[in-house]
Amino acid sequence: MSSYGQRVFLSQHPLIQHKVTLLRDIRTEPKKFRELVREVSMLLAYEATRDLATEQVPVTTPLAETVGLRLSEKIGLVPILRAGLGMVDGIWELMPSAEVWHIGLYRDHKTLQPVQYYNKLPVNPRVQVCLVLDPMLATGGSAVATVDILKRWGARRIKFMGIIAAPEGIHALTSAHPDVDIHLAAIDDHLTPEPTSPDNPPQGYIVPGLGDAGDRQFGTG
Ligand code: PRP
Ligand code: URA
């Protein structure tokens, strides 16, 4: 939990904090950056999935019959393209039976509003819990739009997993979707400024942040 409310979980784990510091470093190359995104995502997922439902199942060990637990809910991983892609693999390794459904959004550079360009969700929801994956929660526009899409689709339980958030993004997501848990590795200070004139468009980057998470993963900056 954090001072932002009962549904905002800020990890205090030293491994996560160590790795986020390396992610922020301007000298971290794309290969290392991708490894770190993968590792931080796995560690965050461990915390974000602690309340998943389980059911009892019989199991035969080499010594005896006993009863164990297995996950009883179907999980959907929903990466927001592009930057969310880097969060998938590590989490998928932890939950190999999860389904992965991609949502493609980019932020319009002038308005910072999300523009959807990809959605291949099946007609009917097939998962009980959706984990929305995106390393950056800046204005919150992309996360809010994705949760809107998932709710219209019929998703009942949605969690957002991000690496770095700005206060503005947390407020936007909790206001629009107060029922969505938000799991984060860091909450930063602010966003780069609002537009002051048509010649000076908004940037909406998280400060101190890590720059553009998509560009830094894919070497496109
Ligand atoms: C980045 C990031 C989020 C979005 C966050 O994506 O990965 O999806 O910005 O900003 P917001 O909270 O203000 O919506 P971007 O639009 O740069 O696309 P990319 O991942 O393809 O680079
Ligand atoms: N998207 C990014 O990749 N970085 C930011 O700081 C804000 C949005």
Explain the layout of strands and helices.
Blueprint: E1 8-10, H1 14-24, H2 30-48, E2 54-60, E3 65-71, E4 75-81, H3 88-94, E5 99-100, E6 103-107, E7 114-119, E8 129-133, E9 136-137, H4 141-153, E10 157-161, E11 164-165, H5 167-176, E12 181-184, E13 186-187, E14 190-191, E15 206-207, H6 213-218
Parallel strand pairs: 1-12, 4-5, 4-6, 4-8, 8-10, 9-11, 10-12, 11-13
Antiparallel strand pairs: 2-3, 6-7, 14-15
Bound molecules: 1-O-pyrophosphono-5-O-phosphono-alpha-D-ribofuranose and uracil.
**Average of per-residue pLDDT values:** 94
Could you say what the CATH topology is called? Rossmann fold
CATH architecture: 3-Layer(aba) Sandwich
Element-by-element helix/strand order: EHHEEEHEEEEEHEEHEEEEH
State the helix count. Answer: 6
What is the rounded Rg? 18 Å
The domain count comes to: 1
Oligomer: single chain
